Amino acid sequence: KKLYGIILLIFMIFTGCKSMPELQPADKRITWLPADSKVFLNVNIDGNRLLLNEAITKMGFDNKELQSIMDKSQTVCLGLENPLDLAGGIHLISEGKYNSGVMKIGLRLSKEWAQTDRESGTITSTTGLQVVPEKGEILFSDGKIDEILTNKVDPVPVYLPRDVRDHFIESDIILYYPQ
Fold it and tell me: How crowded is residue 135: how many other Cβ atoms within 10 Å of its Cβ?
């Protein structure tokens, strides 16, 4: 009887438990966000442009500069450190058809923004929001832009269940709150 028990135990160990989801490498944007991010929101702008424009207007951000950025955006990936307190720990990666040179000049000419790191291209607002405009991408953070830039060069491996990973790539909007 002991032999049958040992054989059954070995069989279970080597065949594994099929109830656990198969993990896949996460979308690159998630691996760039700070490790403290607890909630992830990914939005395909093309499929939701009208909805997002309306939401921006209702939130009181109805200005031409933001509208211009949204018009050129294709996807946005947001990481929140504390979803119950939006006062801190907000990080965002936006991909689109941006002209980083024009954006950098526009921010530098504004009284609310100043270049704080010439090497990385970081431009910081008077409220502490950090922005790095790059060709095809805009990186935003409220204090951890260096971590995003480091993760972009040397991503930290993040693994997600296969269905969540696929939704990040294919869905118009996905909110992921890992536990």
Answer: 9
DSSP secondary structure letter of residue 171: -
Residue 80, beta-bridge partner list: 39, 90
How does the average pLDDT of the chain come out, rounded?
80
- Say which amino acid occupies 40: F
Task: Identify the CA nearest to 162 among candidates 40, 29, 26, 19.
Answer: 26
Nearest to 159 by CA among 40, 27, 42: 27
Please give the distance of CA 24 from its chain centroid, rounded to a whole number.
17
Rounded CA gap, 179 and 164, in Å? 13
pTM, 2 dp: 0.75
pLDDT, one tens digit per residue, over 132-168 is 998 889 898 888 999 999 989 988 888 888 888 888 8
Dump strand ranges (E) for 15-129.
Answer: 23-25, 39-44, 73-80, 90-96, 113-117, 122-125
